[in-house]
Design a protein that fits this description.
Length: 172
Amino acid sequence: MSRLITIWLDICLLRAGPQDLPSSRILLGLTVSCYLLVSLLLSVPGYPAGTALLVAVLDLGLLAAFTAALLYFFGKWARLPQTLTALTGTGSLLGLLALPLVYLLLQGPEDNLLGGFAALFWLFLFGWSLLVVAHIMRHALSIPLPYAIGVSVLYTLVALQLMAALFPTQAG
């Protein structure tokens, strides 16, 4: 298991790709479960428990559907298990890093130094997450990094817009 975590960390640091993970349905199931749990934990502070679960399931469904559609379109369907394992594994790791930030940002005023630092680190983590998804897509789709960044940004914009439309927050 430590070898797998090392590979996911290496993918997050852009030193490995999804092809470095084993193609295993069991591993995919475990990482999907972890991703769903982390997504749920990230959603709970902003939504009631039932809605947070729906947000987490939709997040996972969008990730899987978008990835499957791209791999099918590019004729790389066989890469789906490793690509989803890479996306959900790295998403879980980055989500765990974001977890304390989410709780900190939702609890304290933004005008204090700690809140400002948390917001800055959140932006950095968001940007890094986009880059990690692009890195994975670059390998999975065999496309240049600038195109993969476009794919990553497109996915994120679609997902954020859909989530905002289906699950509006109470603020504002």
